[in-house]
Amino acid sequence: MILSVLLLSDDSSLRNGAGEPTGDSVHSPDLAGKLVRPRFTEPAKMRRRVIERPVGSSVRLKCTASGNPHPDIIWLKDSKPLADEEGGAGGERKKKRWTLSLRNLTPEHSGKYTCHVSNKAGEINATYKVEVIRKFDREAGATPSQ
To answer: What residue stretches are annotated with the Ig-like domain (predicted)?
Structure first.
């Protein structure tokens, strides 16, 4: 399968001013020249895929991965690439290489967030469902949709 759209890739935090990797990845020197499909390196931190948070709170979504060559990560929301600007949907969004942080959540942040990790050898995806709950929904006794 060929991905025909170039989406927001977060390589800038991967490299220092000289264009060298910063050492935040799991990369073994004995893999030089060998293609290795991406794999998630911290699956235990990814078990909770449906996340409910109240308005105004924060959430961090992790997709730590390794592979050879070093994989790229692209974040999507509801199958659309996330823009690189701060503050989408009235809150704050910050990306570090493998983590997407959403702060000051609003109901507009609710949706399916997917990390697409790929290199020449293959690709993997993980999707989180984020539900932002209005405080008055809980106070009124309403239950969030499943």
So the answer is: 38-131
What element of type H or E holds 138? helix 135-139
pLDDT in tens, 37-68: 999 999 998 989 999 999 999 999 999 999 99
Give the chain's radius of gyration (CA, Å).
Answer: 17
* Among 59, 18, 25, CA closest to 41: 25
| Six token digits for residue 89 | 């949907």
Place of tokens 């469902």: 129
Check whether 17 has a pLDDT greater than 50.
no
Distance CA 13, CA 98 (A): 10
Listed in order, strand segments (DSSP E) in 16-121 are: 36-40, 50-54, 59-62, 65-68, 72-77, 80-81, 92-96, 99-103, 111-119
C-alpha closest to that of 132 among 46, 45, 57:
57
- CA 133/CA 110 separation, integer angstroms: 9
Question: Would you say 52 and 131 are in contact if contact means Cβ atoms under 8 Å apart?
Answer: yes
- Specify the range with the lowest mean pLDDT, choosing from 45-49, 99-103, 110-114: 45-49
- Name the pTM for this structure: 0.67
